[in-house]
Design goal:
Blueprint (H helix, E strand, L loop, with lengths): L18 H10 L16 H12 L2 E4 L7 H11 L3 E4 L10 H8 L3 E2 L3 H19 L14 H9 L7 H8 L3 H13 L3 E4 L2 E4 L1
Parallel strand pairs: 1-2, 2-3
Antiparallel strand pairs: 4-5
Helix pairs in contact: 2-3, 6-8
């Protein structure tokens, strides 16, 4: 299984006890950081690091979060990036779960079983795999864009196209347009820019 750890420091030679894991990551994954050499671990680096994690992910599942909480910052970043946000329900008496209850109140999907996550992310994961895997028996070209996304993709220009323009031209609900844009962004077919999207 491919893993992409995101470091909150510069990438350094790992401790001896982690060398085997680091060697495995070289073969089946990668280690990501945006911090320059010499950057030590600092508490304030967590939100900056976590926005990369949420950006690389299809969604974010918050297991436990107090008020305030770094997990809530990450969840907020995920929303800004158009990612799915999930949260576990807790008793109102559990301080460590109050952040999760707030997320659910604000629209995060409540998770009680793994099926709740797969129900939302399964189609996105399948789409991502289809778009990135070479077509079988052909010339190695990527699979065609599913018809459900083609409409929105065709409306995104090579210059900035706003979400309002896409909603107006497609005549689709804004929730559907945003969902399609997220899937297209994950597939590397569009990129988010200030004020809208640009086709790759």
């Amino acid at each position: 299984m491919r893993s992409i750890p995101v470091a909150m420091t510069a990438i350094l030679l790992p401790p001896l006890r982690h060398r085997e894991l680091a060697a495995e990551l070289e073969q089946v994954g990668c280690l990501v950081t945006e911090f320059p050499p010499g950057t030590p671990p600092r508490r304030q680096n967590f939100p900056q690091r976590n926005r990369i994690i949420s950006g690389l992910s299809l969604g974010v599942l918050v297991i436990e979060a107090a008020l305030p909480s770094g997990s809530l910052i990450t969840a907020g970043t995920a929303v800004e990036q158009g990612r799915e946000v999930f949260a576990l329900p807790w008793s109102m008496l559990h301080k460590g779960g109050q952040g999760c209850l707030r997320l659910i109140r604000d629209g995060a999907k409540m998770v009680q079983t793994i099926d709740d996550v797969l129900e939302e992310l399964g189609p996105l994961y399948t789409l991502q795999q289809d778009l990135f895997m070479p077509a079988q028996g052909g010339d190695g070209a990527s699979a065609d864009v599913p018809g459900g996304l083609q409409q929105v993709l065709e409306l995104v220009g090579f210059e900035l196209t706003t979400v309002d323009e896409l909603v107006r031209c497609s005549r689709l609900p804004i929730a559907q347009v945003l969902s399609d844009l997220s899937a297209l962004e994950l597939a590397g077919l569009v990129v988010r820019s200030a004020g809208g999207y640009i086709r790759c």
